[in-house]
Amino acid sequence: MKNRITELFGIEFPIIQAGMIWNSGWRLASAVSNEGGLGLLGAGSMYPEVLREHIKKCQQATQKPFGVNVPMLYPNLEEIIQIIIEEGVKIVFTSAGNPKTYTQHLKSHDITVVHVVSSVKFALKAQEAGVDAIVAEGFEAGGHNGREETTTFTLIPMVKEQLKIPLIAAGGIATGRGMLAAMVLGADGVQVGSRFVASEESSAHQAFKDVVVNAKEGDTELTLKELAPVRLIKNKFYQDVKELYKKGPSIEELKKLLGRARAKKGMFEGDLVEGELEIGQISGLIHDIKPAAQIVQDLMREFEAAKGEIQEF
Predict the structure, then answer these.
(1) How far apart are CA 280 and CA 212, in angstroms?
(2) What is the pLDDT of residues 239-266, one digit of tens each?
(3) 4-203+285-311: CATH class
(4) Domain boundaries, the chain
(5) Is the pTM higher than 0.85?
């Protein structure tokens, strides 16, 4: 399959595995890349030298393109960028920050840069900053997303209407049918997160994977907008947040409750009670844990089958 996204990244299918914190290590990224998609390492949960190790292992595990997702709100940002350059990574997805900060620096080292946004306004700012493509992520997505609460199927055509560079849809996409729908609305490719959390190669704790598989409609909610909006499974920690909101908390009180390493505790260490369990609304449609290669294959098989059904109308 050839289009603007497959040609930009040098991949077979326009499927990008999201660089999710505590889920996206070298095993997952290389498995997705080996199957024809684009695997991403999640730098947001890695100390600089850990990221270097994952890059090296990913390079050994695949000869195909892969990238690194860099949330720009995390510390050690300058050191992370330098490691990416030193290790010869050729694709970087930036998020949660100003794309002007590092886009031209990265591009000067022959690195393809993509920025993640949640609104038309920031899509245009990223395009102006010189990025090569945009990920437009809707309100349905897991983890940290936008305050606007614009859903994916509303966001994609609005961004497409004004954007000149390639567009990747994210948020609520876990099937080939969802992939086709996003592309009909104007996306050139899709970024898939939650479905890859429930993969054999994901670095998430097995207990968290099991929660994702067992999640149903309504089991997640976006919260903590005053800090950084995040979609969470409704566990005890989520309920504690909800109770605190009843008292009209200050930002400092919210930060105190959140504490440190809450996401690591939940997704990586498997504390389903006190941990922060980040996942998308689409988790209600995920019912099993599969090899990442099988997930890519399923997406493309369903995509082609759905295209065939539409042509019969």
Answers:
(1) 9
(2) 999 999 999 999 999 999 999 889 999 9
(3) alpha beta
(4) 4-203+285-311, 215-282
(5) yes
